[in-house]
Amino acid sequence: MSLLEVTNLSVEFRTSDGIVKAVDGVSFKVDRGETLAIVGESGSGKTVTNLAIMGLLPSKIANILGSAKLDTGGSSVDLLKIPSSDLRKIRGRDVAMIFQDPMSALHPYYTIGHQIIEAHQIHNQCSEEDSAKRAIELLELVGISDASKRLNAFPHQFSGGMRQRVMIAMALVNNPKF
Amino acid sequence: MFGYLLRRIATSLAILFAVSFAVYAIFALLPFDPAALTCGKNCNNPAIIEANRIRLGYDIPFWQQYIIFLGGLFAGRNYGEGAAAIHCPAPSLGYSFNEHECVTTLIGRALPVTASLAIGAMILWLIVGITLGVVAARFRGRSADTASTIFVLIGTSLPTFLTGLLLLVFVVIKWKIIPFPSGNYTPLLENPFEWAQILLLPWITLAFASAALYTRFVRNAVIETLSEDFIRTARAKGLSEKVVLRKHTLRAALAPIATMAGLDFAGLLGGAILTEKVFNLPGLGRLSLGAVVEYDLPIIVGTTLLSAAIVITMNLLVDVLYAFIDPRVRVAS
Questions:
Q1: Interface ipTM
Q2: pLDDT tens-digit map of B179-223
Q3: A56 touches chain B (CB under 8 A)
Q4: For residue B108, what is the domain's CATH number?
């Protein structure tokens, strides 16, 4: 069984000018330990494909069809069909996303540490100190020096590359499935 | 941060000094004889006018008057000499011959009324405006949003005096829920119930239009923030919609509201003229209006300076508050 199996995924947006088809019948499989790159021109639907699988498209304007089955250890769940409360438990824990523009993807009012710790705390019953330790561990893993001090820094105090590493650390904090 | 604060306080004091000079100059150079005005509208007795001119210090050059005025702010001031001398303790803003009282005393009596009115109204419009704005944004395009739009339309199109009069006519006169405003004011510490009873309708009147404006503003700010990338990141972490809204959206969306509320509050503290007039409240607005009608220059100078001081102080407070809310401003400062 593949880790993720997307079958016939279609995404349409309801706009004032009519229906816009962003993704039309995309199917792919990702096995454990496998890396899959989706390549295409700008506006070809790469981001929309991933946002649809993550359940991050606004349901008010998006029609999503097809299936995206994720192996949750023996059984599988269809990410496009499960209730949003169940999807929230999977999002950020089993499936994580590293966004393209880290300057706008990180909250400008909260410290780097706060944002990574928050991501860890939602899915783990542990103390804030333990989450902070995990955050430091991840920041060190992505090559940010003096990580324990950098926890209190705000996104705007980091360079673009460092912010991208923070995004990677945040995505990895809960050991997503691979 | 400390250095920034000191710099801001120094700039604020310099602005206040400049404003005080400008205000004093404007009123000193007006084509009125302030001494003649002190003797009443139909006064033809030059002896009284001259005596008052000397007593109030209008007989000396303008710049000397200004220096004495500044001195009075810090050390108090005597008007006239001997047994008939009138003493206004520091900070003296002048003496009103119409009211026969020191301007500071008059302001000291009117300010608590206006402050009570402004604080209560602001709390009310912030609660209503933020709640309705957030609900409208959260349920955008649904009936709650439509209802808030109707409220915004009514609130912004009804003038304050009309809202006040409608409340007076229905709540006070027709339904007799609250007694007719007598023109007296009961301080909060003397009788909290009576204080609230006197101020309830003025609060609603003053808050109504602002609540409508804030509803619109908060709604737009929340909708805009909800479309930010960092909100998508928050959802991608697995946070519930409640946390996304309360923690991630509201802090970013409400930061500009703090600035807006601070400056609006400062404007109100200078006197909510219409509301005070409609409800017969002895506040700063009524005091200023009376002074303008009677050409009572010392009161006009005093209240204008006080308003300027309040606006400058609130500007400073709002900037400091904003720096606490938004770390990007904090570091840049």
A1: 0.94
A2: 877 777 888 888 888 898 889 999 999 999 899 999 999 999 999
A3: yes
A4: 1.10.3720.10
